[in-house]
Amino acid sequence: MSKNKKPRKFSKRSLSARSSKRPASSRNKSSDLPRIPGLNSRSRGRRGELRRHLDERLQLLYHRTMVIENELRKLDEDRFYRVCIFGSARIKQDTKQYSDVFALARYFGWEGIDVLTGGGPGLMEAANKGARLGREEKKTKSLSYGLSIQLEFEPEPNRHIDIKRHHHKFSSRLDDFIRLSNSVVCTPGGIGTLLEFFFVWQLIQVKHATPRPIVLLEKAFWEGVVQWLRDVPLARGLMGEKDFSNIHIVDTPEEVFEIISAHHREFRERVGAVEEST
Q1: pLDDT tens digits along 182-224
Q2: Residue 84, SS3?
């Protein structure tokens, strides 16, 4: 530009006129955005149809599940007594925890009580193994159950199981633990064992499961958990004192067996009374 030539000045009016001549796409960038599905009436109608179809399918699956659940309950209810033993898969054979669970399940085998576990290694293996030995020693009819789960680090269930059922999801497995058991023993474990403990406890609280003893083996492991529940949720009114009525914390397999055995006798007496009245 020449040194003598002055820069051109634009008035506000001329600037406004220039901007009005720009293409609409440059003035409004939102017009370049992709169209969002579901905004037009046709898409909304299609989505509504899909939602109704999904709702119908879910309703059908729910009713099928309830029919199956009721049939299974008729086949199994008040015929067999099982204790479910939860515990860590990481605990090895040369530990006190393994020996205690093995001894406990052996006692159950002696009394003819079925033992139900997650079917994996560690304390689950100890329980299944002990139950089988106890049955063989006393010639009882107790069975060793294993509800296995699809996990990369637990490719195969343990070798001490009479009846196996494999699950791909924890949710269905947890439901089977509740449906098939009459009492629960929680031994030391990690997130999975804690989940199982709270799952059973919560279902009993809301009456989705029948009342049953929940026995926690090893005071040093469980007392801190239960004390926190009393100090915080209970103190804030988020739980009730009666929620703790079926929780037992003990230190030895013999103490666990005493509690479960007493509940087993009550079960047999109740079943016997019903059979006599029919």
Answers
A1: 999 999 999 999 999 999 999 999 999 999 999 999 999 999 9
A2: strand
DSSP line for 151-201: BTTB-S--S--SEEEEESSHHHHHHHHHHH-SEEEE-S-SHHHHHHHHHHH
Whether pLDDT at 229 is above 50? yes
Q: Is the pTM of this model over 0.90?
A: no
Q: What is the pLDDT, as a whole number, of residue 18? A: 53
Q: Evaluate whether 167 touches 185 at the Cβ level (below 8 Å).
A: no
**Could you say which DSSP state residue 150 is in?**
-
Share of the chain above pLDDT 70, in %: 75
Tell me, yes or no, whether 72 lies in a domain.
Answer: no
Higher pLDDT, 232 or 22: 232
For residue 134, being part of any structural domain is answered with yes
Does the residue 205 lie in any domain? yes
Tell me, yes or no, whether 69 lies in a domain: no
Residue for token digits 């990369």?
152
CATH number of the domain at 180, please: 3.40.50.450
DSSP per-residue codes, 236-269: TTSS-GGGGTTEEEESSHHHHHHHHHHHHHHHHH
Q: Tell me: the pLDDT tens digits for 67-104?
A: 655 555 555 566 789 999 999 999 999 999 999 999 99
How many structural domains is the chain composed of?
Answer: 1
Query: What is the distance of C-alpha 241 from the center of its chain?
Result: 24
Q: Angle at which helices 96-111 and 253-277 pack, to 10 degrees?
A: 20
Residue 270 structural domain: 82-277
* Helix%, strand%, coil% for the chain, nearest 5: 55, 10, 30
Phi, psi of 14 (to 5 degrees): -70, -35
Query: What contacts 132, CB < 8 A, 6 or more positions away?
Result: 109, 144, 160, 162
Quick one: 73 exposed, middle or buried, by C-beta within 10 A (0-12, 13-18, 19+)? exposed
